[in-house]
TrEMBL record:
GO cellular component: a single term: COPI-coated vesicle membrane
Protein name per Swiss-Prot or TrEMBL: ER lumen protein-retaining receptor
Record's keyword annotation contains Secreted: no
Lineage top rank: taxon: Eukaryota
Membrane topology: Multi-pass membrane protein
Species the sequence originates in: Cariama cristata (Red-legged seriema)
């Protein structure tokens, strides 16, 4: 395990903690896409089924369990505990537009045609597009709360650090996973415009706002 992967995991965990603290502190999930959080919970569930079959390390197991618990706590906060504050009208992205092609692709392009491998591949493909409902919601409302932008920044940073991790592993271990790398690059591309706005606006104390769709 190298420093890029550890920093990536820390960034990912920090993003989730920021989101949970935002919800708990404000007692509101306004501006947060519940659909994106459902997709992330599905990502972790299908990816970490190997918890029941394979032990890699204490660190690996603990991180997987933490991500699973946090994902379902977030979904519970949005759809149960603070459901009255949930903006369902603007969280209107059609999930079938992501789930159907991702499911089909995971059957067509995978490392081996076994249930666990197909589900792992499904999770990789789904993670690359799971943030789209959140970005769609921001584009629809025209703005995002500062804490939400911090969450998105660290989520994007996690993917960028994992790209560095893959580059490092390629040069030091001659390891290359095409499915993970391509999906990670696609996901990072989705964050590019957001990174620019984050640096030019949010870090200067301005609220992130976007042009309203016509």
């Amino acid at each position: 395990m190298n420093v890029f992967r550890i920093l990536g995991d820390v960034s990912h965990l920090l993003a989730i903690i920021i989101l949970l603290l935002q919800i708990l502190k404000s007692k509101s999930c306004a501006g947060i896409s519940g659909k994106s959080q459902i997709l992330f919970a599905l990502v972790f569930t299908t990816r970490y089924l190997d918890l029941f079959t394979t032990f890699i390390s204490v660190y690996n197991t603990v991180m997987k369990v933490i991500f699973l618990i946090c994902a379902y706590i977030t979904v519970y906060m949005i759809y149960v505990k603070f459901r009255k504050t949930f903006d369902s009208e603007n969280d209107s992205f059609r999930l079938e537009f992501l789930l159907v092609p991702v499911t089909g692709l995971s059957f067509l392009e995978n490392h081996s045609f076994t249930p666990l491998e197909i589900l792992w591949t499904f999770s990789i493909y789904l993670e690359s597009v799971a943030i789209l409902p959140q970005l769609f919601m921001i584009s629809k409302t025209g703005e995002a709360e500062t804490i939400t932008t911090h969450y998105l920044f660290f989520l994007g940073l996690y993917r960028a650090l994992y790209i560095a991790n893959w580059v490092w592993r390629y040069y030091t271990e001659n390891f290359y996973d095409q499915i993970a790398v391509v999906s990670g690059v696609v996901q990072t591309i989705f964050y590019c415009d957001f990174f620019y706005l984050y640096v030019t606006k949010v870090l200067k104390g301005k609220k992130l706002s976007l042009p309203m769709p016509v």
